[in-house]
Specification:
The chain has about 325 residues and is α/β, with parallel strands linked by helices. Helix content is about 30%, strand content about 20%. It binds threonylcarbamoyladenylate and magnesium ion (MG).
Length: about 325
């Protein structure tokens, strides 16, 4: 059931969470499939509902920086980033505190924990009402598109989740940026996301790239974020049997695109539209979705990362 985010429905969602049930909640990035992070059974239900491999750890969402520090040890650079970008679309992976009540399963047995302080008022009201950290991956079945509207999550998870809090379309439409900070304050970009690399590097200096084959980064399964149709990237026009997902207005073909992520060439607008537009195009069952070239700076890095995964060969 989709419930509007009234105080009474937020209260009802909190009661369900405290009883170990799952609830879909809006965040400023994408909708999250939330469960009580301190309840291992609830966390297991999340993996089951997503059909997600158990080794993929979850983000613990908390209300404040002080709450985050109860679960993880934030080195200086992590604290600087937190002060600048929280509440907001940044996830920090840091050493987990031994006495954190967050279930081991949520961290997939790692010695680190992923922490985020969301900005969406409904997510915050829910965290306040629950009074516990919420584990929340994107509210989609593993491997499919992340939901940016309540109806998307409700469709995808109809079989496993009975309560979807509707907070309207997600403002950003792209998952949080994930940065790991080790105890020596060495910073690595694990997932490009709604905050650009440039914004982060302006504050703490260069970010290392995640090593292939090394742990743990996000959405590292090759085929991920995939619509049903095949994708053809860096396309300048649609060929027979294709629909075109355009960007910008540099050619007549872009202006005739089936959908255009941002006719004005704005990467923030493009990020906010990405998943919803892929979903809309996919719904018409095209053979192939051709996608215009997206510049690879700012949020374009995250958009291109998602597109490359969506275009990867499927198993
Ligand atoms: O914007 C977001 O981050 C959304 C909203 C709901 O908050 N959540 C989200 O969660 O995207 P999820 O589970 O779809 O992606 C989280 C990623 C996972 O792919 C996981 O690999 C990575 O975070 N992650 C979590 N804990 C980690 C850890 N300890 N070390 C490395 N990566 C970790
Ligand atoms: Mg996800």
């Amino acid at each position: 059931m989709i419930a509007s985010a009234t105080p009474a429905n937020i209260e009802s969602a909190a009661e369900r969470l405290l009883a170990g049930e799952l609830v879909v909640m809006p965040t400023e990035t994408v909708y999250g499939l939330a469960g009580d992070a301190t309840n291992a059974t609830a966390v297991a239900r999340i993996f089951e509902a997503k059909g997600r491999p158990h080794f993929n750890p979850l983000i613990a969402h908390v209300l404040t920086l002080a709450d985050a520090e109860a679960h993880g040890v934030l080195p200086a650079k992590a604290r600087e980033l937190a002060e600048q970008f929280w509440p907001g679309p940044l996830t920090l992976v840091v050493e987990r505190r031994a006495h954190s009540p967050v279930a081991e399963l949520a961290c997939a047995g790692l010695s680190t924990i992923a922490l985020r302080v969301p900005a969406h008022p409904v997510a915050r009201a829910l965290l306040e009402a629950v009074g516990r950290p919420l584990a929340a991956p994107s509210a989609n079945r593993s491997g499919s598109l992340s939901p940016t509207r309540a109806e998307h999550a409700a469709e995808d998870l109809a079989a496993s989740v009975s309560f979807v809090l509707d907070g309207g379309p997600c403002r950003l439409g792209l998952e949080s940026t994930i940065v790991a900070i080790d105890p020596q304050s060495h910073a690595t970009l694990l997932r490009a996301g709604a905050i650009s690399r440039e914004e982060i590097e302006a504050l703490i200096g260069p970010l290392a790239a995640a090593q292939a084959g090394a742990i743990s980064a996000p959405g590292m399964l090759t085929s991920h974020y995939a619509p049903r149709a095949a994708l053809r990237l860096n396309a300048h026009a649609a060929e027979a049997g294709e629909v075109l997902l355009g960007f910008g207005a540099s050619s007549p073909e872009m202006l005739r695109a089936t959908l255009n992520l941002s006719p004005s060439g704005d990467l923030v607008e493009a990020a906010a539209h990405l998943y919803a537009f892929l979903r809309d195009l996919d719904a018409a069952n095209p053979g192939v979705i051709a996608v215009a070239p997206i510049p690879n700076y700012g949020l374009g890095e995250a958009i291109n990362d998602r597109l490359a995964r969506a275009a990867a060969p499927r198993s």
